[in-house]
Amino acid sequence: MRKLALGIEALAIAVLFGSFLASGGKLLLAGAAAALLALAGVLGLAGKRREMPGFWLWFVSLLAYAFLYIPLVIVVIFSFNDSKLNAEWVGFTTAWYLKLFSDEDMLRAALNSLSIACGAAAIATVLGTMAGLSMHRFKPKLLPFLVFTPVAMPEILLGVSLLIFFLNSVSPALGALGIDFGLGLTTVVIAHVTFCIGFVAIIVRARLAGMDESIFEAARDLGATPWQTFRLVTLPLIMPGVIAGALMAFTLSIDDFVITFFTSGVGTKTLPLEIYTMIKVAVTPEVNAVSALLMALTLGMIMIAAKLAPDLMQAKT
Amino acid sequence: MALLEIRNVTRRFGPLTAVDDVSLAVEAGEFFTLLGPSGCGKTTLLRMIAGFDLPDAGEILLEGADMADTPPEKRPIHTVFQSYALFPHMTVAQNIAFPLRMAGNAPEQISAKVRDALALVHLEAKGQQYPHELSGGQKQRVALARSLVSRPRVLLLDEPLGALDAKLREEMQIELIDMQREVGITFVFVTHSQNEALALSSRIAVMNAGRVEQLDEPSRLYGFPRNRFVADFIGKINLFNGEIVAVDGERVRLRVAGLGEIEARGAAGLRPGTPATLALRPEQVRLAAIGAALDLPNRHPGKVRDFLYIGDVTTYVIDLQNGQRMQALLPNSSPGRAKFFEVGDAVTAAWPAEAGVVLTE
Ligand SMILES: Nc1ncnc2c1ncn2[C@@H]1O[C@H](COP(=O)(O)OP(=O)(O)OP(=O)(O)O)[C@@H](O)[C@H]1O
Ligand SMILES: [Mg+2]
Fold it and tell me: Is the ipTM of this complex over 0.85?
């Protein structure tokens, strides 16, 4: 029964992609619907009678997943398409990736993105860990509010207000001291740090929440100074959370568009900004390729984060 | 000079006074116990001795030196926490080595001392395991080894056996006494179990609502409770309210409604006419069938209402003819014999004059 179900499942997926490749996407919808129906039917039947989730439950959930992931899959597929147009499957090629790696604008943008992400993640991790620790230890009233607000605030608001702050307050103030301050990598890093701190703090605090307080007292009791207690006991225990927070901050920073758009000025381009410039002309398979790479990077980061802090991925009651 | 001295220590949390003007002195080498019901301030007092919390008033002295400005890591006082508080990311050996590392011992010295400490708690084979791989009793032993390994002057134990089952608890009690004798370190032990306190301690401070009610050796605490709270909290006891009618040194005559005049022991300085309570331990009460000869001054007829067979002893609840109710504890020393009396049997309850204690508080 299980084997049969798996067989039909594989067949359904084959039908889906077959119909899509053969017809250049025109029959995609029909193919996808057929595959979904078949899959849901099989899974619904294969389930144990008593606790059958049933056909419709399977169908709806598969539909939701398909809705979320099929566009992503298509982007990846077309990044290997041997045609300049994103319409019809012609043949397999890695040319777009090669072209990408010889595109200087693209490489510069990628380098910018990576340096911003590394810088912002590093700073946000240190500050966010400190915030998370002190929120846990001292239970302050105002701090959580200050730290979490940038997380919840609409990005456009944050972007605009940071832009105004940089141009109208920081630049004149530093100018008066004789320092030339303009929009660029630094302002983007600062902007990214503001909204990444909250995520790191949330993760670190969640990690501390379930911990036995007396462990830290025990360390002091046995002769450790506050700093030794932090280095030898607290930090190792929250480390998975800190790393997960750092990866999260890196991911958020590398694909941020709105805030970067406002705070980067004219000269500095990051990957998302570069992609945006490209698609203003046309959605070329090169865009697909760079998106696919970005997607792979993000997915990798999320997977590592999930492994390090499994509680992040589980619903808590 | 006492090793550890607590002088008029008070700690308030808002309107609540958790520790209320407590003074006591612990001598070197003692097994000292703080005993009291839940919420009476035992942990709060212990945390102030360890240095995690500071008194609002009063002082804590170690070997005559005020500890107020000494942070926990500088006090030669270690704590065994109720939750064990082992470091989950370190092996058993690393846990035990922690205080030695903090004290700056050389690595060879550390491993030798860790080995000795593991032997002390019979966990030689577990050095390389992590805390989550141990049973509750084993974790408890590691926590003990860890806090003893660098030989503190005082070891504080906050209900260390609370999480163990009854059998393991008893085993650990015996091990604790052995261990304390072996290392010679002063123990300050916190518990709300009177059995544990009586079994382990050289002296006990009975606490209630933040105050010390009585500080004494176990046998004196049991035999001569100072007030109703201590009498009631330690062991089982019969309490009868009455009034003092005559005093002759320690011999006191007391009038109790329904029982008439009763002879008992009292502290010096009691005065006739004051209201008082007669406290009588159930094991001091003899029971005999009506008519049997009992050569005791206090004799009262009654009926067996209930009994509780525990194995070695049976507790009888007696309804006296005059309306009072009392408990009597009889050993079941004849083999195979479950009880002497049945429910409903008419009996005489009697006790010697020196068995009753007069309490005025
Ligand atoms: N940090 C605190 N803030 C406010 N109240 C506290 C605090 N710590 C203790 N208390 C209160 O002080 C009183 C004494 O608490 P403590 O923990 O010392 O009791 P305990 O004798 O150890 O009890 P238990 O046997 O249940 O452990 C309690 O009423 C408790 O609610
Ligand atoms: Mg307590």
Answer: no
